[in-house]
Description:
Blueprint: H1 2-20, H2 27-34, E1 36-42, E2 49-51, E3 54-56, H3 58-70, E4 73-79, H4 85-90, E5 96-97, H5 105-108, E6 111-113, E7 118-127, E8 145-147, H6 151-160, E9 169-171, H7 176-185, E10 191-194, H8 195-201, E11 208-220, E12 223-225, H9 231-245, H10 248-257, H11 265-277, H12 283-293, H13 297-308, H14 328-333, H15 342-359, H16 366-379, H17 381-393, H18 401-410, H19 414-417, H20 427-447, E13 467-470, E14 477-479
Parallel strand pairs: 1-4, 1-5, 8-9
Antiparallel strand pairs: 2-3, 4-13, 6-12, 7-10, 7-11, 13-14
Helix pairs in contact: 11-20, 12-13, 12-15, 13-20, 15-16, 16-17, 16-20, 17-18, 18-20
Amino acid sequence: MHHARLRVAILLSAAGILGTCTQPPSLLEQIRQTGELRVVTRNSATAYDLDGNDPQGPEYQLLRGFADELGVRLRLLVVQKPSDVLPKLTTGRAHVAAAGLTINPDSERLVDFGPVYQQVTEHLVYRDGRRPPRDLSQLGSKRLEVPAGSNYVKTLARVQSQVPELVWTENPHAGQRELLNQVASGELDYTLVKSDMFALYRSFMPQLRVAFNVAEGESVAWAFPKWGDGSLREAAERYFARIRADGELDRLLDDHYGHVASPNHLRTKHFLSDIRTRLPAYRQQFKAVAREFGLDWRLLAAVGYQESRWDPLAVSPTGVRGLMMLTEQTALRFGVEDRTDAMQSIRGGARYLADIMKRLPAELGELDRTAFALAAYNMGLGHLLDARRLARDSEADWNRWLHVRPMVRKLADPAVAARTRHGQARGGEAVWFVDNVQNYFNVLAYMTRDELPLPDWMAPRSPAPLEVQAAPGPSDATRLAARESPHGDNG
Length: 491
């Protein structure tokens, strides 16, 4: 009996001791306790850009949303080279790596990847006018360069087992943007570029052509340390599942890539030529009128080029005329007496565009407001409002051009138009108008980047700091360190 009581006492004592021992907190719990999520990223148009004090980039926006969901601060460690990203993660400096990383066998041995949120392709690009190779075995003595330490090096190394004669140079001093510029100018024969990056730059460099795809179906995802317990990765999986289900992911990617329409290369070449030969005669007029009405002169000039190729005497078969191609009714409404007078036409077009923008909802974002205004400029505000109502009735977001755009096209369908207030419209033409004006604006913005700041979504940016801390919520990121990156967009 005594021994039985002793055993019970020992068991109760042991249970008490065990009860006071708690499991160590998970990685997710540690992050919530410290109130800080540390992420390593790079200065890149497709990851993180700093425009003045305003952080931008798809990875940054995704990370900001994730940190907000966790209720913690976002601390970014911005590295200069692609090869520096994963070491920051594996050595414990960061909890997450988010730098446009693509999943590959080499990286999977070092880190665990989260959910795939984007698919990209790696292109080999060359300059228009030169004979394109059909595959990597045809490069011969031509120069192929890629940024040192980039994923492109791993891609080429894998291909080299099938193409042993393949030779390339890893450039430690030039990033993606610089190498694309060199190919476009003819200084370099070839480079590799991911499809998302190419989408951002092709409007500004119309000389670039895709010869072929070197790697297809590359999956973009965040990376997590193997030393973690999986709790943070699981939280990221829940976050991506939510933003994918409610459409937030599509909206975010469209904010960064949806404004870039596929350019007509011949049209872009003519545009570049006309910038040199025709624009100088009207440049100061565009600037003066744009200041008067609070518009970006480059947008006004892009509209003028789409309408008339900057020809003040242009006339259409429907009777619209002048540099901004105004109807008689619009000219009368906005005080234009002579539609063939360039200054009067520009001022009339600017007043019309500014009037449309003022009548659009205040909650629209800049890109959506501009796209809506351009569509209304082309087909009339009433038809645009019809398209927005169609989007709302179909439970789409009627404040997003991404969702309203297909409804604009549907206005050409008599059956659909019969349900609207303003009837049938040439919606396909309006979409085409918006795409072209946006492309012309992109080119003008890039060519005048030393004169005016680029729009928020457009690269290149100011050099990024190595570490940036962003408070949760709507406040801007705060610079902690000012060491600059010499180049970005390394792929």
